[in-house]
Amino acid sequence: MAEKTAPRPRQTADARREALVDAAVEHFAQTGLHGTAVSAITDAVGITQPYAFSLFGTKKGLFLAAVERSFDRVEETFRTAAAGAEPGGEFDAMKESYASVLADRSLLLMQLQTYAAAGDDEVREVARRRYAQLYDLARELSGADREGLTEFFAAGMLLNVAAALDLPELLLNDTWLEQCLKLDK
Fold it and tell me: Can you give the pTM of this predicted structure?
């Protein structure tokens, strides 16, 4: 006789959608838009593929939701850091907070997968819009000028690559990290 498993508790449609996007970030981060099977994502959440397609239309629609989620998480990191900073210290707090983005391997790799998939017009449009929003948010929260923001985003991209490639000689060298992020006062 087959062993019965306990039924899963019923979730709201919103909760299933959120769980699906969270799982999509994890899976797309590892294998990208074209290398990820939707079944791997739906199996992780315990829903059917047809249900996922009813929510997002296509695999690319689910990928775009994962892109949006990853940008939301970076924006929230910056907002939280700036809100907790002393007046005038928002930009330094945002710079320091980026370490948490680098430490979240799925978030880090999802960012890189987004840029890798930007050959697709729809992906590029969402990534372009969200990157511009992130830049505007950083300017609004920090009051930094164009030069400061350019250095901040350039250092962030360099740190993304160093973290993704696990280059500890770059990431763990405090002097180098401070120079990249302009943390030294």
Answer: 0.86
